[in-house]
Amino acid sequence: MATWLYRIGEAAARRAWAVILAWVLIIAGVAGAYTAFHGKLSNTFTMPGTQTQQLSDELAQRFPSANRGSGQIIITTGDGTALTEEQKQAFSTALNKLTTEVPAVDAVTDPFTTTSKLAEAKTQLDEAHTKLGAAPAQIEDGKKQLNAAASQIEDGTKQIADSEKKLDDSQAQITAGRKQLDEAQNQLDDAQVQLKEGYAQAEAAGSPAAMMEQLNAQQAQLTEQQNALNQQHDTLIESQKQVDAGRAEIASKKDELAEGKKKLDEQRNQLQKTESELPAQREQLERQQKLYDFTSGYRMVSEDQSTAIATVSFKKKIYEVPSAELQKVMSDLESANLHGATVQFDANLSESALGGGSHTGEVAGMVIAFIVLMVMLGTLVAAGLPILMSLVGVVVGVLGTLSLSSVIQMSSTAYTLGLMLGLAVGIDYSLFILNRYRTNLLNGMPKVQSIALANGTSGNAVIFAASTVIIALVALNVTGIPFLGVMGNAAAFCVVVAALIAVTLTPAVLSLAGTKIMSKKLWASIDTPQKIAERRVQDAERTEKPNGWLRLVLARPLLTLVAGTLALLAVAAPMSQMRLGLPDASNYPSDSAAYKSYALVKDKFGEGMSAPLVAVAHTPANMSEEQAQQAQIDIASAVKERGGANVQAVVPGGMTDDRTLMIFQVIPAHSASSVETEELVHELRAVTVPVQGSEVSLGIAGQTSGNIDVSEVLAQKLPLYLGVVMGLSFLVLILVFRSIMVPLVASVGFLFSVLASFGAVVSIYQLGFMSSLFGVDHPGPVLSFLPTLLIGILFGLAMDYQMFLVTGMREAYVHGKDAATAIVSGYNHAMRVVVAAAIIMISVFGGFIFADSTMIRPMGFGLAFGVLVDAFIVRMTLTPAIMALLGDRAWWMPKWLDRLTPNMDVEGAALSEKMSEKIQHERESAAADSGSKLGSE
To answer: In this predicted structure, what is the pLDDT of residue 935?
Structure first.
């Protein structure tokens, strides 16, 4: 590898402009790829296999409206006065325009319309309760009226029966009278016949007067009787008419009574039906009342009427909505004439629509790095070269990474991590080669050979150092967490680019820098062979003499070890209280739009309104509407009961058409990142409710529960990843140092660095110790994936410092120096460049401590503090102390293992010796040739 890199360095030095042109073309290529293919970044983290993700996938298919992105828009008067009707109307109008003017908006929920509907529902329920309460008395009144009507019908029936009896008696009398009249008529007819016979006899007898007088008298009497009979007959006819009329009247009354009885029966049946339905109606009303009561803690308009929350639902998930459309939603509402009211936006809208933000901290870090380089190297060109190389690497690495953001779901944290690492290692890697190049020049080596040898030696160390960082970052994929793997891959790519630039572009630029790479004073110190020789002697003497800090360490190694260890343990102690999570609006800076809206919602509605949970229940099939309603009530009641004071409201959110999937919106009483909300999620997932003979368990989804799931999975994976990295570091260091104790010390030291970094992060960002100094307005859980990232990144960086410091000690020991002298020699050889590299990394990482993103801030601090502890305490303090205590035992290694272990010439020592011998031979030959010429003269 060293020889190969030597050749690359030599070729780059001789064909500098070709190398520079190649990198210019690469930059143009990645810039074009970024322009053509970059996509939307996301700060939403998903975890396949978790309950949240499984439910989210199911809701996307069965209940799409419950699985889309949304954001809250808050309107407020700002002074606590109630919103006017004019302000409400203006806000509602501006809201409704969003659905037509912003393509990504699917629907809006108007708080005033919703509140009005809820009030109307309350009025209807109250009226129904009033009606249902009055129903029993009304039914009793109806029964009394029906009973009175039944009595009247019964009296009428009796009256008809009496009338019929009277008519029957009259009819019997008429019949009897007719019979008597008929008998009398017969008798009268017989008498008339006899009278006619008497007239005939009288006529035959000559009509004697006496006889005729008698007959006439009889005839008169018969005529009188006939008239009487006729009169009686007429009377009977009239009586018959009266009876017939009476019967017709009775028939009519019977019909009326029959109709009245029919109506009475119908009314009685209706009354009985109404009475029988009362329990079901009462149950239905009770169900509706209970469903309504569940929303009692859910308000969209504050109690003082000064603030209201509207919800904007999008057609896609929030991270898929273009930033321009999110920005338009906000600008449309901000520009609307709300008659003195103002609007604020939650984190989903305000943070997702933000651009890159300010980079003041990063610039400050780069300025500090430049100052360090200026102090170390002495010229503007030398100080600017590593920074220029790092910037080129960042441009290629970050743009190359973002070019894939349209096909890979990528968070803004991924490219920021790449930017952070790219800047830091880019400067350091170029610095290592630049420093070795200057050393070669100071030893009298020609420029091209100096560049080539620097690339073959320090370049080899750079490749090894980069490899350790890359392996640790790529190993994040073994956690099985996709977004963490993407972060690791993005950062690893930036490190690969930084390493490639260090061993290709840096040699090319060094060849063009000429004498500007060192100060004139330094050049003057090596302008003759004698001065070069004197400088070598001075350097040799200086490297074997302990100075400054090292002298203090070696004077009291045991005390140094104990004090350093206790200090690290004290710093690491808060780690025992570490709680992982993802930041929400409650953790944002006080002056951010996200926190302002969160604080307003918290004050007016309760902080849980910003962190809703989605509860999902899979219910039995074939339920009726009433059974489904009862299931909603039972489940919501169970949620309320199990959640207790941690639940502000439970709002039934609907069900699928087949009633086999129900969703509920659960409003916690606390923020998304609070301990109480985390406990609530676990409590609700343990809920089981009997529904139609089946036990229905509850699932929890939504962004809040998703963050909790991510944090828990990461916490579970952390020990495994730490073990893998620790084991990997031990094996790699055995290869490098051919020792057992040195790798053990290095690995344990790395563990202490990581734990101390964890402890410091917990102290500041979770517990709030000195939080104001670091701009932490609202401490909260530690970023869930930060510990894993710190382990991976600090491992690679720690191995860099270990290698640059201890390989020099090993080389000195192998070349015959005693253990104590080897420690001093190796330390002094690498101390200057390691200190500079560590300060540069601390500066670059520290520049991100005040970044806009609440995710990046603790990451920058953790890395900066981790480098500080690892470089200055573990590597430059504890490691020399332990090495001094171990003496020769530090380099012990079993012979069988020594035979199996390949020789890892990390710093290209063999190449360096070979080149030194070659140069010495060339100098001796030149001197001999010069002597021959002088002799011949």
So the answer is: 42
Rounded to whole angstroms, how far apart are CA atoms 158 and 494?
Answer: 110
Q: How many helices (H) does the chain have, and how many strands (E)?
A: 28, 11
3-state DSSP assignment of residue 616: strand
Closest CA to 710 of 392, 534, 495, 479: 479
C-alpha distances out from residue 91 to 13, 85, 112, 332, 413, Å: 67, 10, 10, 11, 35
User: What letter represents residue 585's amino acid?
Assistant: A
Q: Residue 722 is encoded by which pair of tokens?
A: 């730490």
The pair of structure tokens assigned to 131 is 């009606």
The 10 Å Cβ neighbour count of residue 235 is 13
Euclidean distance between CA atoms 498 and 392, whole angstroms: 8
Section 912-926 average pLDDT: 57
Compute the mean pLDDT over every residue in the chain, rounded to the nearest whole number: 84
Count Cβ atoms below 10 Å from residue 749 Cβ, excluding itself. 25
DSSP states along 3-33? HHHHHHHHHHHHTHHHHHHHHHHHHHHHHHH
Per-residue pLDDT tens over the stretch 428-448: 888 888 888 888 887 778 888
State how far the alpha carbon of 22 is from the alpha carbons of 16, 492, 505, in Å.
10, 22, 9
C-alpha gyration radius of the chain = 52
Distance CA 105, CA 929 (A): 86
Where are the strands (E) in 272-380, listed by range?
307-314, 342-345
Per-residue pLDDT reduced to its tens digit, 219-237: 888 888 888 888 988 888 8
> Which contacts qualify for 264-270: CB closer than 8 Å, 24 or more apart?
264/146, 264/149, 264/150, 264/153, 267/142, 267/146, 268/146
Strand order in the sheet with 307-314: 105-109, 307-314, 70-76, 342-345
Contact 295, 118 (CB under 8 A): yes
CA-based nearest residue to 455, from 20, 919, 13: 13
Torsion of CA 414, 420, 423, 427, to 10 degrees: -130
Model pLDDT, residue 818: 85
| Rounded distance between C-alpha atoms, residue 906 and residue 738, angstroms | 12
pLDDT recorded at residue 934: 39
Strands 307-314 and 105-109, sheet pairing: antiparallel
Distance in angstroms (rounded) separating the CA atoms of residues 274 and 279: 10
Q: Which two tokens stand for residue 373?
A: 């380089």
Confidence of residue 865 (pLDDT cuts 50, 70, 90): very high
The amino acid sitting at 655 is M
pLDDT in tens, 467-524: 888 888 888 887 778 888 888 899 899 999 999 999 999 999 998 987 777 776 666 6
Of 472, 446, 113, the residue nearest 301 (C-alpha): 113
Residues 427, 374: Cα–Cα separation, whole Å: 13
DSSP letter at 787 equals: H
Separation of alpha carbons 424 and 421, rounded Å: 5
The three-state DSSP-derived secondary structure of 513-582 is HHHHHCCHHHHHCCCCHHHHHHHHHHHHHHHCCCCHHHHHHHHCHHHHHHHHHHHHHHHHHHHHHCCEEC
Token pair listed for 596: 């302002």
- Which among 754, 788, 764, 775 has a CA at the least distance from the CA of 867? 754
Residue type, 111: P
pLDDT band of 916, cuts 50, 70, 90:
low
Of the chain, the end-to-end C-alpha distance in Å amounts to 47
Mean pLDDT of 801-811: 81
Query: Distances from the Cα of 647 to the Cαs of 289, 309, 598, 640, in angstroms?
Result: 19, 19, 18, 6
pLDDT digits (tens, 9 = 90+) for 632-649: 889 988 988 888 889 888
Can you tell me which residue has the tokens 């090993």? 810
Q: Where are the alpha helices (DSSP H) in 15-110?
A: 16-37, 51-62, 85-101
pLDDT in the model for residue 305: 92
